[in-house]
Amino acid sequence: MVGRIVTGAGALLAALTAPAYAQGPSQADPLAPLQFDAGGRFILLGGAFDGGSAELVGLRLELEAGVETVLEQGLAIGARLAAVGERDHPSRSPRGGLAGVCPPGFADCAAVSGSAVRAPVSGYAGAELQEARGGPRAAVEQAYIYVDGGWGAVNLGLAPGAAAALSLPTPTILAGSSAVDGSLSLTRLGGVQTVNDLSGSSAKLVFRSVSLLGLSAGLSYGPGNDHRTVDQGFARRAGEAVVFEAERIWEGGLRFERVWRSGLRTRAALTYLTGESAGSEPQWGDIEAWSAGVQLGYGPLRGGVSVLESDNGWAAGERGYSALAASSVYEAGPWALMIEASSADDDLAHVQTDALLAAIGWDRGDGVTISLSLMSQDRSVPEADAFGRTQRQESAKGLMLEFAADL
């Protein structure tokens, strides 16, 4: 399967680089200098929530490095590597985590081969064989080579797919603690996902076009989703619920961005992903997911709406995932205000999540931001036994202080 990706990459690179080489013979400058860059981001999150189930402190460290050379025809060739270390609520290992009590064999709790199931999008599971490991987590998030030519860029390796790269989540001023597509959570309630990232950073071939009149497109193919990151547990470990294993994953997307003469800023995106089940269990089938996002901005105000829909790859009935989020940001110099609302339903895990967040942020320059936010989360989780399934309500309300710095 990897051989097919490499063969396809060669054909795509030939088409991609043809315009760049049309002006002269195909030869590389052996003395073309290598350009190195490195950077990252550090996020420290503290919070105080009602009840005793929330963590007081969370942190995330993102590191990345790259090397690139530009040939005399203008073709850029390079490689990038990115790693992430993270610690937040121990139940989020990976994202989602244990939600309620819905063991296999009880009521309508999802089960495969007698084991509990982890929902592909949200990451929620109704039962595990052992407690979540908790503690710090670390993983290589990206490792790929790329060619950037006259018509676009091609990546080959561990990287987000076209659907994730072109997804348009709602605007935010928070570096990692948003209730929508946030990377850090101090509560065990999880969050709402609207980025179409079901393939994660597993190995794939990705093409992204240049922008033409504000419109760009992307396409990617991956043989599977077996790479585990800090927030996505596609590769099942001992003691965990069954995960959806996909193969032959295709992704595509469109992104439009334009600033009009009136000063109105518009952004819109549409993505689609499909993959086949790599297992033999009849409960799993082909998986599909699509996302859409729209943002409008004028002067200091911008707002947006994003949605994500997926069938969760569940062939044994309609047990999909649906999410909707909206937010608005007002900026005044180095200060910014934000309000965000979100809701998601995961019928496979029997979990419904709602969140409302308001935040104020200060950009002190040099890549350093400090934000204070007030969040209210509510979650409905299953409680199943031999007599059936009911739903239990959980909530968390509190303050969060976030410090983020570019490295």
Q: Quick recap of the structure?
A:
By secondary structure, this protein is mainly beta.
How many strands?
Answer: 20
CATH superfamily: Porin
Order of helices and strands: HEEEEEEEEEHEEEEEEEEEEE
Strands ordered across the widest β-sheet = 1-2-3-8-9-10-11-12-13-14-15-16-17-18-19-20
Kindly describe this structure:
By secondary structure, the chain is mainly beta. It has one domain (2-18, 47-81, 140-223, 246-406): Beta Barrel (Porin). Helix content is 6%, strand content 52%. The protein is built from 2 helices and 20 strands. It has helices at 2-21, 162-166, and strands spanning 34-49, 57-70, 76-87, 97-98, 111-112, 115-116, 124-125, 137-148, 152-158, 203-209, 215-224, 246-259, 265-277, 287-298, 301-310, 321-332, 335-346, 351-365, 368-385, 388-406. The strands form 3 sheets. It has a 16-stranded antiparallel β-barrel with strand order 1-2-3-8-9-10-11-12-13-14-15-16-17-18-19-20. A hairpin with a 7-residue loop joins strand 1 and strand 2. It is globular and about 70 Å long. The two termini are 38 Å apart. 44% of the residues are buried. The model is unreliable at 1-28 (pLDDT under 50).
Keywords:
mainly beta, Porin, 16-stranded antiparallel β-barrel, 2 helices, 20 strands, 52% strand, globular, disordered N terminus
